[in-house]
Design brief:
heterodimer; A: 3% strand; B: mainly alpha
């Protein structure tokens, strides 16, 4: 099969899955089976693409050309492939988890849920495949719109308000800043194609390019850089599988993916290294890392705490990209994968606790580890991976991140990373410790609490194992990441 | 006799004759048939004229064989063809939609008259577009305006009468201003032919009379085009007229007024005089910007969705005027592109509301609760139109916004580029309100399901698909617009 056919399959499989889900809405078992099947197929397509992938010979496929010189086109490069692998692997796993979660939780409108999920994956695949800024922007906006029904799924007043915050910040920043930046890039460079080494003229006034970079970084609201981070905690009203796959993996990673793409293929890493504004943005990312951690520490609601942890982790990637060194790009792209596995595990666990024990607060978790040992073990492993301790995947990206700050001679940010690791240890790892060792209020407190439904449990074990395996088998990912620059 | 040579005249005469025919047949269905046939003819004729323009730059037709400038000349260039296509196309779609919608919304004894008035509006608007004589523009403007007042007053809501009356008063003031402007120019130059006038104006350009004429003309046309702050007639006129009329007016009437404004600015006075020597370009930039912000902001707070779209139209006119105010080639391209695209966008949105009013009385926001489930196809069309209005990629609206922002950056007007994008955000809010109500609220009362006629859904989706098509393939729209701009720039600058 040709590479172009693979591209089309990557887009068609989620769409056909969505169609299948809609047409099988009366048969819940078949409906969920088709979701799993679609996910499995998608991953096998991406995996077979990865097996024969040759970064030296990228294949471009033009779909449409609305204007002279501006097209909707697909081209897979190492960074896109890495993101596609992560997202397509975690989609069926999350579907498996969702089957247990949604049924045990008696959620309504499950057909709409699975349909929106599948089309969101379609938008994500389009983002990973985009060959130019216009295609990326189109997919980026699609992803916002398709995930909106998932955020407002509950239909309550709170969910609707969260929907407005979500739409307002994500669309506001993308139309107000990102689109402006794209049009400006077009005016400056005359092209929107992602090109290794960048498309902007290095002779252009540095202040102008700096302003452009600021527009790009703030315009990518999905990367949740402060002060445009409020949408992410707001989106936590969504069902947990949505928070897990979309608001810890697909949507937020689409944000940092966009920033990495812009840095590598629009500006060029070297150019970013010379810009003053990149330095200030990296400091802002450092500020976001620390302050989001501090906020997370003060929160008792488990999902909200995880959301702020995500904000902090996303800024690791922004920081890495803004350093303007190639090790930073490697660190950022590795962190996309590492953080995805760790954070999705954490969300799965949070959802399992909600479904099995009906608890949403950290302070209620005393002693729950004895009733849900598997879940809390997974939580511990994922938390350690986020902190960046070996033998878990997160240690690799932390390693390269530290390397990148050294390469960029930025000891201040080195310090930020170290402090943040300590904070992570404090507000994430403390949770399973409390669950295992703290004494519950009384003997009957955790009575009747059991592990989550089997499908959910399997999903948790898969992603937890992923955190471990990524430490041992990091080489293929590392090859991809180092192929970017 | 070669019929195609007579097309410039026939395209005006056909609807002009169809109007009395509609009265004579009396039967609403027959009158509808006449109107539809005429619209299809006009559309086909527009296509034919466009075909003929492949070989020549301008089609000139002397009425009755009297050579211009003494005789009346019909004159069609690429810009005129663009407008004709728009007029013919909207007329076909809207008439198709009208069959059932008018049966539902207009009293039986007035239905044939409705089509008469519709044909007169069409004849007037087409006449304005094709004529090469400035006095004729006034005459055709009056034909279309008077029939528009009649059409608006046919609305079910009694407030339609007052809206129509208000438009009548303001429209007449506008028309009088235009007439005064024409009179001044005639006194100074002794000609009414546009070509001839353009040649003779520079010699007397530096007189107070000509400047006054310019002021009268632009204010009169600004009023017809709903240029902020001369827009007060528009919201109620759109909100209370029959659905079909709102859709037709939104995609044609203001557009034709803008067309005449462009003609006066560029072909008649020339960009150098009107947008350079006189500070009208600055005025357009300011009024356009204020119109965008004010129109969009007021739209957010409307509880009647038709009224909301009407205010949005004022904002959209702002975009077009802003682009004209740039007085550059990219600016004119952006203006004409948006003129074309917005006609499709607003047409489809108003038709979607027409379907909604087919089930309910009027288009109140509260009525739309739960429509996402009960009228999925109609609301889907509304969402596509809304996205296009916002300017999401892969829709026609994106193309307009893209060219507008490029033109603004080209002129280094950064604040205005940001303002245009800010306007899109305001559109997110007012479209989002409708979507929220339609998809996330439960319907207040259970209405019996009503079969929506295929003619309504069909014509609605025709425009909706047009929205997507012109967002993905700009070969046709952009090609025609570039031709129009180069013909305009050739004369003016």
């Amino acid at each position: 099969m040709s590479i172009q056919a693979h591209y089309l399959l990557m887009l068609l499989i989620p769409l056909l899955t969505a169609a299948g889900v809609v047409s099988l809405r009366r048969y819940p078992n078949l409906r969920e089976a088709i979701t799993l099947l679609g996910g499995g197929l998608l991953f096998s397509v991406v995996a077979s693409l990865a097996a024969t992938f040759d970064p030296a010979q990228p294949v471009t496929m033009t779909l449409l050309q609305p204007m002279q010189g501006i097209s909707l086109a697909l081209r897979l490069e190492p960074l896109g492939l890495l993101f596609a692998l992560v997202a397509s692997f975690l989609w069926p796993v999350t579907s498996l988890y969702a089957i247990g979660y949604m049924r045990a939780h008696h959620e309504k409108n499950q057909t709409r849920f699975y349909t929106a999920f599948a089309v969101s994956i379609f938008a994500t695949m389009l983002i990973t495949l985009s060959a130019n800024l216009l295609t990326l922007f189109l997919a980026y906006e699609m992803l916002t719109l398709f995930t909106l029904p998932l955020v407002t799924h509950a239909g309550t007043k709170q969910a609707r308000r969260a929907g407005w915050v979500y739409l307002g910040i994500l669309m506001g920043t993308s139309i107000g800043f990102l689109l402006l930046a794209i049009v400006w890039t077009w005016a400056l460079a005359g092209t929107l194609e992602f090109t290794p080494g960048g498309i902007l003229n290095h002779e252009t006034d540095g202040a102008l390019l700096g302003a452009l970079l600021v527009l790009y970084v703030f315009g990518t609201g999905k990367a949740a850089l402060m002060p445009f981070h409020r949408w992410l905690p707001a989106a936590m009203v969504a069902p947990t599988p949505v928070s897990a796959l979309l608001h810890a993996v697909a949507v937020v990673k689409a944000g940092v993916f966009t920033i990495l793409k812009v840095v590598v293929y629009v500006f060029g890493v070297d150019l970013v290294g010379t810009l003053d504004s990149a330095y200030w943005l990296s400091l802002l990312a450092g500020f976001t890392i620390i302050s989001a951690s501090v906020v997370a520490m003060s929160l008792d609601n488990l999902k909200a705490r995880l959301a702020y942890s995500t904000i902090s982790q996303l800024s690791y990637i922004i920081l890495a990209a803004m350093l303007g060194v190639s090790s930073g790009i490697i660190a950022g792209s590795l962190h996309i994968a590492m953080h995805a596995f760790a954070k999705i595990t954490l969300f799965f666990c949070a959802g399992a606790i909600l479904v099995a024990a009906h608890k949403t607060r950290v302070s209620e978790l005393n002693g729950i580890g004895r009733s849900m040992p598997l879940t809390m073990t997974a939580f511990l492993i994922a938390a350690l991976s986020v902190v960046g301790l070996p033998p878990f995947g997160g240690s690799w990206s932390k390693w390269w991140l530290l390397q990148a700050t050294l390469d960029a001679h930025n000891s201040l940010l080195l310090l930020v990373l170290l402090v943040s690791s300590l904070l992570n240890l404090f507000y994430l790892v403390s949770i399973p410790l409390r669950a295992f060792f703290a004494a519950p209020a009384d003997e009957a407190y955790n009575q009747g609490v059991r592990e989550a439904p089997l499908p959910s449990l399997i999903a948790i074990i898969i992603t937890m194992t992923g955190c471990l395996l990524l430490f041992l088998l990091v080489e293929p990912l590392w090859n991809l990441a180092s192929g970017i620059v | 006799m070669d019929l195609s040579a007579q097309l410039p005249a026939l395209i005006v005469i056909a609807p002009l004759l169809a109007a009395p025919l509609c009265v004579l047949v009396g039967n609403p269905r027959l009158a509808w048939g006449v109107a539809l046939l005429t619209s299809v003819f006009c559309f086909a004729a527009a296509l034919g004229l466009l075909q003929m323009l492949q070989h020549v730059d301008v089609l000139s037709y002397s009425m009755g064989g009297w050579a211009p400038p003494l005789g009346i000349e019909l004159r069609i260039d690429a810009l005129g063809a663009l407008l004709l296509l728009l007029l013919g196309g909207s007329s076909v779609v809207v008439t198709l939609f009208a069959l059932r919608s008018v049966e539902h919304e207009v009293a039986l004894e007035r239905q044939a008259l409705f089509y008469t008035a519709l044909m007169l509006v069409l004849a007037g608007l087409i006449g304005i577009t094709v004529t090469g004589d400035i006095f004729n523009i006034f005459v055709f403007l009056e034909i279309s305006s008077l029939s528009t007042y009649a059409l608006i007053s046919l609305g079910r809501d009694r407030r339609a009468l007052f809206a129509s009356f208000r438009y009548l008063v303001m429209g007449t003031i506008g028309a009088t201003f235009i007439l005064i402007g024409i009179g001044f120019m005639y006194v100074m130059t002794g000609t009414l032919n546009l070509q001839d006038l353009a040649e003779r104006l520079p010699a007397v350009a530096d007189t107070r009379a000509i400047r006054a004429a310019f002021a009268f003309l632009t204010i009169g046309l600004g009023l017809k085009a709903a240029m902020f702050p001369l827009h007060i007639w528009l919201p109620n006129a759109y909100a209370y007229s029959p659905s079909v009329v709102s859709a037709f007016l939104a995609s044609t009437a203001t557009k034709v007024a803008i067309y005449v404004l462009v003609r006066v600015l560029l072909s008649l006075y020339g960009a150098h005089f009107s947008l350079g020597e006189l500070p009208f370009d600055k005025l357009l930039l300011v009024l356009g910007s204020v119109g965008i912000v004010a129109g969009s902001l007021v739209a957010i707070f409307q509880s009647n969705v038709k009224r909301m779209l009407a205010y949005s139209s004022i904002a959209q006119v702002g975009y077009i005027l802003l682009a004209i105010g740039l007085a550059s080639q990219p600016g004119f391209t952006a203006a004409l592109l948006h003129l074309f695209n917005h006609a499709i966008i607003k047409g489809s949105l108003f038709l979607a509301l027409g379907v909604v009013s087919f089930r309910f009385t009027g288009a109140k926001l509260a009525d739309m609760a739960g429509l996402g489930k009960t009228m999925p196809w109609t609301m889907a069309a509304f969402v596509v139109g809304g996205l296009s209005l916002i300017g999401v990629p892969a829709t026609a609206g994106f193309i307009s916004k893209w060219y507008l922002v490029i033109a603004l950056i080209d002129a280094s007007l950064w604040p205005l580029a940001i303002l245009v994008l800010f306007g899109s955000l305001l559109a997110v809010v007012y479209i989002g309100r409708v979507i929220e109500v339609a998809y996330y609220r439960q319907p207040a009362r259970d209405l019996p399901r009503k079969q929506i006629p295929i003619t309504m859904v069909g014509s609605l989706w025709l425009l909706t698909l047009g929205n997507v098509y012109f967002g993905l393939n700009t070969e046709f729209s952009l090609g025609l617009v570039s031709l129009a701009v180069s013909s305009l720039m050739g004369v003016g600058v």
